[in-house]
């Protein structure tokens, strides 16, 4: 009887396994022709979770692009947390892909370029991508250059990083605080005190674990870099700069005075905590976004002038595989995407009539915006029912400036962005890329040291007099001086060649 | 209980073919598994080469691997270059040592208790309950733990405050964490680990106990003279295999649970978290391969040593 | 199986149980000891269950109340919103359920078959190639080619990308399970049983299915349980090998949300406002916890299912035939 049972089991096992095999056997596609032109399929890896209606939107886009340039898309979305790892595998194994999202903080642009993963685009841009090359701000192209060559098409958005103090409007109004005049860390002090004395329920300065104290330096390879105002291009360790030492001492003072929440070094943003001020990394109209997530109004003030660094200007790019079979098609597609209103908005907001409707802007707004650039005839009114089925991060696929703005955004939003970008000043180190190959062992050791002490020091949770030397000692043991020397050598060469 | 071998397999001196014929049936049984190992374990082994290369792309993977510069042991250096190397190694080995010991002792106690329960239904309920933590990822567990240890609103601190004491800043106080980590790891794993021992105890021939009871042995004596000795092969084999993993740590346990809190690194930084942080900025493929190879190689040596010792003492129970 | 056979079978089972019960009563622990052990185990169980209850409670908490008060055992306001959301977003989750169940069942069966045959051969002392095949499984226990090499083999050599096999095959065998099962075979099956069967002229194949499997049921059940849990909790293979969204298992759905939230939170300073907008699109905390509940509930029953086979005294059953 037992034998029979086992036979049955084996038969069942085989049946299930075969059924699984059958199910998996379907779904093969062949290239199709249309209008006599051969349609090629481009595989495009993007960061961000797959949307329910993604395929629908892409099908719609494919109709259009197949007709126009003979391109069809196969978009593969990979979740935020997995993107790095997945792309490392896809790229290193020489897997089949044509385009991918890359930037300075995920699927990192520079190491991939150095590794030889991405295609040089300079020639293609002249032959097949001229329109977009001219449309996108030249500084973005400048930033995309590694050793003089361009390896990615930048998504046009804010170019600089702009740290801001974010104040809760309620208290600003109540105590009549001239927030626009507050810039440096030290400027905050009297007002922190006011809040501390009068509002016992409120945390005067609410910080979380991802907080970094105001940094007046381009940290090319954290913690090593060049100070913003240093035209001599002297490489320094940030923890040895006077400015950072002062900042840390001030942070400690605030912490001890009780201005800062006690759990700052480990806290993750708890929106129920009432706070007076916190730090945010901003861009024009960031207040609207912050207010929306927090649920109350905020106002903000810039901590320092916005600086353009390689990292900030490489916020989002699309690169093409060095081994792609259709590099021209890929660049033609990107060119179309970055210059064609219909396609860009389709991929950005979904299908018109299903995910969004065109909305007429106010006549007054239209009038006020006259003569500005990046002003379009319509705004976008998202469909409340279906917007959750298609909502992609707006800068992953292409630039922002040729998308319609959302209904409750100002019509001249992109114009303001453009002005913001034009006003942003380049850091002296802008354009310099550090080749860390000679010191990769030392650099690998940094993160552990920085993560161990950084958060506690930045938030003032520990005494810098005691812990800063400890940090320094560990950094030295890891070889920070060698990295500084190497970087200085490279930057001198770069300066000479400029 | 063992009688001499009936089939003269090894040393009888038959030729290759006749030996093959004699073992034909068993060979057929092991072939499917061997094919699997060939495909999924041996073919990918060439990947180890990356550890000695500075991997740069120049076409497909093999082409790239071939063309990449050979750098010898360069990729291994970062493991030892920082001042933390000693602390990291110490933490990894000490924690794993605790886990190995507790991972044997606690589950056996649990299995014995569950086995002796008079009410078998309750035994099932308890065992199922203790299995639950295994299903929760460390991320979810870390949220739950945070609800207790949260310095501002956590349950522990509110209890402390009710007794008029100051709250403790749990996530910055080192001294609690070795205990918390060991407790949580056992809490999560004990249900799972108990199963093997429970099944082994079930597999023990009842006749032994019957004979023992006839001789008037107490429960304790039965455990000591029958159950434990008969569990020895399983315990030994699991111990040997655990030794092989002594340089590997459960990433989530050491990273998610302490919320990656810097002040705790002295007691929470282990090889896996160290490597993760080191390669976060850099991401050199050769370095991650080198790190994995280092962990494996040391584990392999330890495993072989343990196996050797065991086979000297008691050949029957060794791995091979 | 005929009716008569079935009945005879049942009868026999009953008799066995009776004998067992008699034996048991005879060698049971004292009542007070039983109470003490019960209390101890109840406390342990309670500790083990708390976080899960906690997760269930969070999944039933009103999102707004959660933001305001953080995690609470007794929330200010209850809400079924998370579950409603999941049911409405339905399709995906139900499909993923199907994938997970299919993969788990198929994988466990295949895995048991492969692990069982391999381990059995290794457990036989007369097997001339025993040492060789033991070495074959020992080396991969420690060394692996790494993610990149595995990916290459699975996608380029075995051509499994975007097929369900990529979820089943990589997990169906492992050295640990084989060695544990081999040990079970070695300890629970007396050599005399094998030898007498060999004398009767039974083939190894028949011996394995007819005698070994029934005798080693607790061991097989253990491995079966391990395999089931392994498949149920697996998301890594889906992340690596599944570009098409047709084969997303439940755990990957969950892990994706978890890692995304985690990643966006820790890279906030690098992404600025972009990170905030990206995070705003992710499912809320309560929904995440609801998915944890939904993905964990069915697998809770895996243990009792396999535990049925943890029965003593199967020797009688095998000798009978």
- The low-confidence runs of chain B, each spanning 5 or more residues with pLDDT under 50, are 1-10
Number of domains of chain B: 2
Query: Nearest-angstrom radius of gyration of chain B?
Result: 25 Å
Strand content of chain B: under 5%
CATH superfamily of the domain at 34-158 and 315-423 in chain A: Periplasmic binding protein-like II
**What structural class should be given to the helix and strand makeup of chain A?**
alpha+beta
Measured between the Cα atoms of the first and last residue of chain B, the distance is 21 Å
CATH class of the domain at 34-158 and 315-423 in chain A: Alpha Beta
What is the alpha-carbon Rg of chain A in Å?
A: 26 Å
Could you name the CATH topology of the domain at 34-158 and 315-423 in chain A? D-Maltodextrin-Binding Protein, domain 2
CATH homologous superfamily identity of the largest domain in chain B: MetI-like
Separation of the first and last Cα atoms of chain A: 86 Å
Counting DSSP H or I runs of 4 or more residues, the number of helices of chain B is: 15
Beta percentage of chain A is 15-25%
| CATH domain fold name of the largest domain in chain B | MetI-like fold
Task: State the share of residues found in helices of chain A, binned by percent.
Answer: 40-55%
Number of strand elements of chain A: 20
Largest sheet of chain B: 2 strands, antiparallel
Tally of contiguous helical segments of chain A:
20
Question: Which helices and strands, and how do they pair?
Answer:
The complex is a heterotrimer of chains A (498), B (320) and C (321).
Chain A: H1 2-24, E1 33-34, E2 37-38, E3 40-47, H2 54-69, E4 71-78, H3 83-92, E5 99-102, H4 109-115, H5 122-128, H6 130-135, H7 138-144, E6 145-146, E7 149-150, E8 152-154, E9 162-168, H8 169-174, H9 189-198, E10 203-205, E11 217-221, E12 224-227, E13 236-237, H10 242-256, E14 275-282, H11 286-294, E15 298-302, E16 307-308, H12 310-313, E17 317-320, H13 327-339, H14 341-349, E18 356-359, H15 363-368, E19 379-382, H16 394-397, H17 413-423, E20 425-426, H18 440-458, H19 464-478, H20 480-497
Parallel strand pairs in A: 3-4, 3-5, 10-14, 16-20
Antiparallel strand pairs in A: 1-2, 5-17, 6-7, 8-17, 9-14, 9-15, 11-12, 12-13, 18-19
Chain B: H1 16-22, H2 24-42, E1 53-54, H3 61-67, E2 69-70, H4 78-81, H5 85-116, H6 120-131, H7 138-149, H8 155-162, H9 177-203, H10 206-214, H11 219-244, H12 251-255, H13 265-268, H14 271-282, H15 285-313
Antiparallel strand pairs in B: 1-2
Helix pairs in contact in B: 5-9, 6-9, 9-11, 11-15
Chain C: H1 3-26, H2 31-59, H3 63-69, H4 81-88, H5 91-123, H6 130-142, H7 146-157, H8 165-172, H9 175-188, H10 191-199, H11 204-215, H12 217-233, H13 236-241, H14 250-266, H15 268-271, H16 273-280, H17 285-300, H18 302-307, H19 315-320
Helix pairs in contact in C: 2-17, 4-17, 5-8, 5-9, 5-12, 9-12, 10-11, 14-16, 14-17
